[in-house]
Amino acid sequence: MDISSRIEAYTRKGFMPESKFGQNFLCDGDIIDRIISLCDIGKGDKVLEIGPGLGSLSFPLASLTDNLTVVEIDKRLASFLKDDLELNALIINEDFLKLKDYGAEDFNVVVSNLPYYVMTDIMKKLFAQCVNARKMVFMVEQDALARITARPGTKQYGPLAVLCSLYGGLKVEFTVQRQCFYPSPNTTSCVISLAKEQQTLSEDLVRFIDRCFANRRKKLVNNVKEARTALSALGLNEQIRAEQLEPDVFIKLYNAII
User: pTM (2 decimals)?
Assistant: First the structure.
C-alpha cells in the first residue's frame, strides 16, 4: 500500500492529523527514497524511528532490516500501523521523551521527522542514550537549522549546536517543500544527517553542557562553580561565558571536572 492509499485508509476511519503532535505526513516518494538512502542501513542493523506517522519511512526501513523499532505517541496511529497495515516492526506507543528501557545502546541508526516543539529535547535524549548509533538522519524545520549549525559567539549557539558538533559529521542534505506533506505545514523543512566520529557522548555529558548554558548572560563559573580551576588549567579566562567556547573545550572541561 503506497502512502496515498494509507492516507485514504486513515481518513476513512474518521481520523485526522493532530496538530498538537505536529503531524504532517511525508507523502513524496522521491524525498522518501532520498532519506532512506542517507540512512545507509545494512540487513543486520538495528534501527530506531521516532514518530513514524503513517509509515512513510517505516515501510521502506522495514524492507532493509529485520530489527526496526518505531515509537509513536499517538495511540490511533500506533494501532493503525500495527493492526491495519501490519508493519514489520516493534511498535511502541509512548511519548519518546518519557520512554525508558527501550534498548537505546543497541541501535545503529536513528531516523525521525522531528516536530519543532520537541526537536531539541528529542535530539538531546538521542545523543545521551543512543551512544552506539553511527548514523542519525533527521527532518527539521528550516528555521531550526540556525540552532543546529550555530558557531561560538553567535546568538543561536547553545547545547544543541555543541552536541551536534561533538557527535560529528553534520551535513545539511536538502530542503523539503511544504507540498511534500499531508497536510502541508506552514514552513519549509530540511533533512540533516550526522555520521558519528570519535567522540562518544553520555547522559552526564549532556547534562553538564546544559549546566554550562543554564544562564547565558552569566559567566561559566557562575553556572558551573567547579569550573574555575579547570578553566585556569586550560589557560582560559575566568570571565568567559559558555557561548564563547568551542565544542571540544566542553569535553576538556567535563573531563577535568567530572
Answer: 0.94
CB contact at 8 A, 170 and 148: yes
d(Cα 42, Cα 70) in Å, to the nearest integer?
17
- Mean pLDDT, residues 180-207 taken together: 92
Task: Give the residue carrying C-alpha cell 494501532.
Answer: 79
One-letter amino acid for residue 172 of the chain: V
Task: Kindly list the distances between the CA atom of residue 132 and the CA atoms of 75, 137, 200, in Å, as whole numbers in the listed order.
Answer: 29, 15, 8
Mean pLDDT of the chain: 93
State how far the alpha carbon of 199 is from the alpha carbons of 31, 169, 222, 252, in Å: 30, 11, 27, 12
**CB neighbour list of residue 6: distance below 8 Å, 6 or more residues apart:** 54, 55, 85
CA dist 61 and 89 (Å) reads 9
Among 13-17, 140-144, 186-190, the range scoring the smallest mean pLDDT is 13-17
Specify the pLDDT at position 9.
86
* Cβ atoms < 10 Å from Cβ of 73: 23
* DSSP character string of 80-113: IIIIIS--SSEEE-S-GGG---S-GGG-SEEEEE
Type of residue found at 194: L
Q: Are 114 and 139 in contact (CB under 8 A)?
A: yes
All domains of the chain in start order, with CATH: 3-199 (3.40.50.150), 204-257 (1.10.8.100)
Cβ pair 90, 103 in contact under 8 A: no
Consecutive H or E run containing 212: helix 203-212
Alpha carbon distance 117, 128 (integer Å): 19
What's the pLDDT tens digit per position in 1-45?
Answer: 788 888 888 888 888 777 777 788 999 999 999 999 999 999 899
Q: Are 64 and 43 in contact (CB under 8 A)?
A: yes
